[in-house]
Design brief:
By secondary structure, the chain is α+β, with helices and mostly antiparallel strands. It is 50% helix and 21% strand.
Length: 664
């Protein structure tokens, strides 16, 4: 850093600081002191005039007798007392405006001079004198004359000049103090600023990152220096990161450039591309173009593009092509071209105009891909159409046969549906035992794997409800429901013929053993693996009890407006993995009028829907019961169906759905 660079900022700040403080001080201190001193001068002047007026007034009263009795000597003796005041040049006693009764004046001042100063018999002030005039009278009504005392203003002028000298001295002292203060401020403020400027210039010019400014005092400059040091440290870190990023960017650019060159090379070798001027002369061809046309680049550049035109292509097709691209649009289509050896090849071409910055067409570019093989296939396809037509006729005959077979199968399934529907109990059978009820049974297909069975038992007070979800749905599930119905008929017959207590848990155990036996699922090597999940309710209207046993099926019921859930066993019925000796748990509930019970298969709970396709779930099912249990069972049935339909929306039905609601 050169010498001038060091001094210029410092000198500039020093002068500006000195000028600013000096002007501020002069504008504040000097006027203030001047005002104070001027006020003191005016006060002294006023006091002098008041004292002189008082003295004149007293003397005029003392002169009243002398003037009244025309005692001139006595009046002069009184006036001679004024010589004690060195500032008084003389005094005149007027009987009227033009008549002087007596006078007093200093030796060096004449009477005529004093007379010339008194213009009127009133108090007045000239440049060098104060003239105080006072009436001579005994009382307010009598007036004997006037006394005029002439005082020299020299002392007042001297006081005025002394005040001006004092102001000048104060001004000089103020400027001296300002200079000293400026020097001190320069040391306190300008030196740290200059040190900061020097560090900034060193960093800017030399990229010096090891600068570390240290403040002498714990003040704002320390905060400024610490901030500067932190900034340098941050810039250093950012610069290092920038260098790393720059190196990485250069590596990325090199890699992208290499990749781009490879892409261009791949484009040149694999894409049949060309470019022509406005007259159709070739200005560029790719290597792939040369390979397929059998021409070299030298043979093609500058030649009209119709060098590869095949005579089979009508002129009208090329006229349409030129009309399209000359209008600024893109043309697409299949073109048959001619190789150098006279052979042909087919391409699917996209030809488009290129524009200059003014929007004018400057050239035409084309990109093609080889479809010769596709055209060969099309030719072969035409030859095969006849054979396909013959084969299609044969397939149509087979189709009719298959449709006839399908119709027979469909008719059989629909008949099976009638049979399965006949197994479903009439809903009116619930009316004898329950105050209100509803039953929902919706197979996924024409027939299903869900079934519910309801039977009256040994008296008019006993009934048995079974809600069963057999393996699968459709025809396989329907076959299992037939088996379940057969076993159920046997169990109900045995109950009606005996007097033993009805146990839903025992009934599940009988189902478990019977199905394993009938389907030969006693061991793991069994071919079939069918069974069911479900719940069985036994209700005794007279004894006011309800018994429940469930296999992977819970029972929901409302009592005192509170929802309760009885969980069934986490154990299915009849499958190969099921133990024949397994004992299901039985639950007994004392019922009251108004209690409501709900039993459902998993088809309702597992139905997918909603925004994310999740299952309907137990939570929503319970919410419906809690919100609508005070409605009639018919209304509740509508709510269950409507809510599920809204949730399912466009999702496919997952499974058969069975839901029974009963009110005590």
């Amino acid at each position: 850093m050169n010498k001038n660079t060091q001094k210029n900022p410092f000198r500039s700040i020093n002068l500006k600081l000195l000028f600013t403080i000096g002007i501020s001080s002069i504008l504040i201190i000097v006027p203030s002191i001047s005002f104070i001193l001027y006020t003191a001068y005016q006060t002294k002047k006023t006091d002098t005039i008041k004292a002189l007026e008082l003295s004149t007034k007293i003397m005029s009263r003392n002169l009243a007798a002398s003037v009244d009795f025309k005692l001139v000597e006595d009046s002069k003796n009184i006036l001679n007392t004024l010589q004690l005041n060195k500032n008084i040049d003389g005094a005149l006693i007027y009987l009227d405006k033009d008549t002087i009764f007596s006078d007093y004046h200093k030796k060096n001042i004449s009477k005529e001079y004093l007379t010339s100063l008194v213009d009127k018999l009133i108090t007045q002030e000239t440049e060098n004198h104060l003239i105080i005039c006072e009436k001579i009278q005994f009382d307010e009504e009598s007036e004997l004359g006037s006394l005029c005392v002439i005082s020299d203003k020299t002392k007042l002028k001297e006081a005025k000049y002394n005040i001006l000298k004092l102001i000048l001295i104060i001004l000089i002292l103020s400027l001296s103090s300002l200079y000293i203060v400026t020097k001190y401020i320069k040391k306190m403020f300008i030196f740290p600023i200059f040190e900061l400027i020097e560090a900034m210039q060193d960093f800017t010019l030399n990229h010096n990152y090891i600068i570390n400014l240290k403040a002498k005092n714990n003040d704002e400059f320390k905060i400024l220096f610490d901030g500067f040091n932190s900034m340098i440290s941050t810039i250093k870190e950012q610069d290092e990161k920038l260098k790393i990023y720059t190196n990485q960017l250069e590596e990325t650019i090199d890699k992208k450039t290499k990749d781009l060159k490879e892409i261009i090379q791949q484009f040149d070798e694999n894409v049949i591309a060309s470019k022509t001027d406005l007259k159709g002369r070739i200005t560029y061809v790719s290597k792939a173009f040369c390979d397929i046309s059998q021409y070299t680049q030298e043979e093609l550049i500058g030649k009209p593009h119709n060098i590869v035109r095949h005579p089979d292509v009508p002129k009208e097709a090329f006229a349409d092509l030129w009309k399209t691209i000359q209008s600024g649009k893109t043309w697409k289509g299949d073109v048959k071209n001619l190789k150098k050896d006279g052979d042909s090849y087919w391409v699917n071409a996209t030809i488009f105009p290129e524009f200059d910055k003014d929007g004018n067409i400057k050239s035409y570019s084309a990109i093609r891909h080889n479809i010769s093989f596709q055209k060969e296939v099309e030719d072969l396809t035409k030859n095969l159409e006849l054979k396909i037509k013959e084969r299609t006729q044969a397939i149509e005959i087979q189709k009719d046969e298959i449709e006839e077979m399908h119709k027979h199968t469909r008719d059989s399934i629909e008949y099976a549906s009638l049979i399965q529907g006949a197994l479903i109990p009439d809903n009116n059978s619930f009316r004898k035992y329950f105050q209100d009820y509803f039953a929902i049974w919706h197979p996924k297909d024409t027939v299903g794997g869900d079934i519910y069975l309801f039977e009256g038992l040994r008296s008019e007070d006993e009934c048995l409800l079974m809600v069963i979800d057999c393996t699968g749905h459709g025809v396989p599930g329907a076959f299992v429901t037939m088996l379940v119905k057969a076993i159920e008929r046997q169990i109900v017959s045995q109950i009606k013929m005996s007097h033993e207590t009805v146990s839903p848990a025992k009934i599940l155990s009988i189902f478990n053993g019977s199905m394993k036996h009938l389907l030969k699922q006693e061991n793991k090597d069994s071919i079939s693996n069918a069974g069911f999940d479900g719940g069985i309710i036994y209700y005794n209207k007279k004894e006011k009890i309800l018994k429940f046993a469930g296999a992977e099926t819970p029972l929901f019921y409302i009592k005192d407006n509170q929802l309760n859930i009885v969980k069934g066993d986490r154990y299915s019925v009849g499958y190969k993995k099921c133990d024949r000796e397994y004992q299901y748990k039985e639950h007994t509930i004392e019922v009251e009028d108004g209690m409501q019970f709900y039993l459902t298969t998993d088809g309702y709970l597992d139905q997918n829907g909603g925004n994310k396709g999740f299952p309907f779930g137990k939570k929503r099912f319970k919410n419906i019961i809690e919100e609508y249990h005070e409605e009639t069972m018919a209304d509740q049935q509508e709510v269950f169906l409507y809510t599920l339909a809204q949730y399912q929306d466009n999702y496919e039905t997952n499974d058969d759905i069975t839901l029974i609601g009963l009110k005590i």
